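Here is one chain, start to finish.
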Amino acid sequence: MLQEGDQMPAFSGQNHLGASVSDQDYKGKKLIVFFYPRANTPGCTAEACDLRDHYAALQAEGYELLGVSADSVKKQANFATKFSFPFPLLADEDHSAISAFGVWGPKKFMGKEFEGIHRTTFVINASGTIVRVINKVKTKEHAAQILEG
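Its structure:
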């Protein structure tokens, strides 16, 4: 997994609207990239809705937001529409961004081990440097976690 001080990796894919998105779109901008396991699940919905509800405060601090999961464009579109997210969701079905950031790996849930996305948020400055990694995400208070820096 990438750490504080690392440069944002190159990535590209389609967002929930089917438009191309890449790291180049965020050059010179402060960016929050939040990885979540699956659209429309309780924890992921709580996290994304909290970020939506505090989007203006995050923008006031100069941040762009990008949500990423391995869901299809269609699933991401349904998720974004259902909850009126004002930020793009990357449909990373080929795991290129997930792998580049290093958030794929073994997980445990209800006693079972499996491979999946580790819920992780990266705060990136305008120079493209990761300035913070949040891997203990509080889904219902995630915007506060980010803003308290």
